[in-house]
Amino acid sequence: MAQRKKSDVNNIRRNMKITLQYIVFAFIQILFIPFAVLGLILCAYKEFIVSKKLGVSVTAGGAIKPRWFLHYFGTRLDEATIKFVKALPTDSHFGFLGIFGAALIANRICGFKPSFTKIPEPGMETFTDFVIT
């Protein structure tokens, strides 16, 4: 019985921590709406207008974005990807930072991680987990 109570307490603590992380993220996200809009404009401009001018497919850079997310959220360190994204004319490094800035700050403050940057428990993997990594 004591073991069950201990696991219940651990579940309550975990749920409280996750709730606090989402509250911190939501507060920062509200403050960062202008940066997110600016980042979205930068990314859209580079992906649609610059790529069309250069005759480069947008999907060429699409495969690198998940690695960028994983690097900045600390799941997978990958400096080469960051250098590549900064040099790629069809992707906006600063646009990504604008869009995901609130999540990155919440990650640094309280450990918030969007679901697509988490490593699943062994045996709980899905197809989408393999696609993003």
Keywords:
single chain; 133 residues; mainly alpha
Describe, in plain words, how this protein is organized in 3D.
The chain is mainly alpha-helical and 133 residues long. It has one domain. It has helices spanning 2-31, 33-54, 59-62, 65-72, 79-87, 93-110, 127-132. It is elongated, with a radius of gyration of 18 Å. The model has no long low-confidence stretch (mean pLDDT 85).
List the helices and strands and how they pair.
Elements: H1 2-31, H2 33-54, H3 59-62, H4 65-72, H5 79-87, H6 93-110, H7 127-132
Helix pairs in contact: 1-6, 2-6, 4-5
Termini Cα gap:
40 Å
Number of domains: 1
* Structural class designation: mainly alpha
Proportion of beta-strand residues: under 5%
Largest sheet: none
Global outline: elongated
Number of helices: 7
Q: What is the helix content? A: over 70%
Order of helices and strands: HHHHHHH
The chain-level mean pLDDT equals 85
Instruction: Compute the number of strand runs.
Output: 0
Gist of the model:
The protein has about 130 residues and is mainly α. It has one domain. The protein contains seven helices and no strands.
